[in-house]
Amino acid sequence: MPTASTSIAKSRWHRRSPTAPRWSPPRKRPASSPRSASTISRTRSFFSRATLSKAARSAKYGRFAAFTRKISWRMRAFRGVGGWTRAAAGGALADIGSHMIACMRHLVGPIRSVLAETVIHIPQRPVARGATATRTVEVDDVTRAFVRFESGASGSFEASWIATGRKMQHDFEIYGSKGSIVFTQERLNEIRVYYAGDDIRSRGFRTIWAGPEHPPYGAFCVAPGHQIGFNELKAIEANEFLEAIAKGSKTSTDFREGYEVQKVLSATYHSARTNEWVEIG
């Protein structure tokens, strides 16, 4: 998959958007705020979420040093006037980048700081479907950023509305001292893994296909390789939500996690305006 550059010096940065939303830190949430079933908010999940989480924390991959993330697709020509204005509260970063940030936090851990740029590639768009009149676009078509994690790992991510040819590029690559994990949402029943300790004669990335041994795949199909789809993922999310209500249990995400994601979003837009590293706080 395409990845962002690994250093600012080598990257080709486009004109910075002067209209990135101004940054103000979200209000601090009281430490005693409850994490109850009534405050659960789920993020987009994909291939064996539990399996990926376990793998990302496995000693097999050693200490994570680098993370790259990309989410993009080609937007339809008309999104609706409100979708291009500041009233929308953000562009590609707020829309699809929030899924990226949630995934990064889930797999690698809290983000400490960010350096970003936002770009408006299409400055005018139609005011209505089929209209010849246009209005000024005020939000980002593309956002790129470098991040530093609290664990000491570093990474990069990109969110784009204008990736011609992409249907659902929701990718990540994690590189550790002993191995690596690669995933793309366009092939959501597969992950690719690499183990540095393998025999050098056969060392390389291998593909693992989802099956009943990766719960909850087996709830939908008893045979491996038959694949589950996006609708099954929504059923998995709904099941966790309803079980949390019924049992009074916790889930992996809630409003507190949404707050943490929003802090990263706000800091990313602030960095894009100032061209400086911004601490998440």
Q: Quick gist of this model?
A:
The chain is 22% helix and 23% strand. The protein is α+β, with helices and mostly antiparallel strands and 281 residues long.
Structural summary, described in words:
The protein has 281 residues and is of the alpha+beta class. It has a single domain, classed as 2-Layer Sandwich (Dihydrodipicolinate Reductase, domain 2), CATH 3.30.360. It is 22% helix and 23% strand. It contains 4 helices and 11 strands. The strands form 2 sheets. A 9-stranded mixed sheet has the order 10-9-8-7-1-6-5-2-11. A two-stranded antiparallel ribbon has the order 3-4. Strand 3 and strand 4 form a beta hairpin. Helix 2 crosses helix 4. The longest helix has 20 residues. It is globular and about 55 Å long. The two termini are 32 Å apart. 32% of the residues are buried. The N terminus is likely disordered.
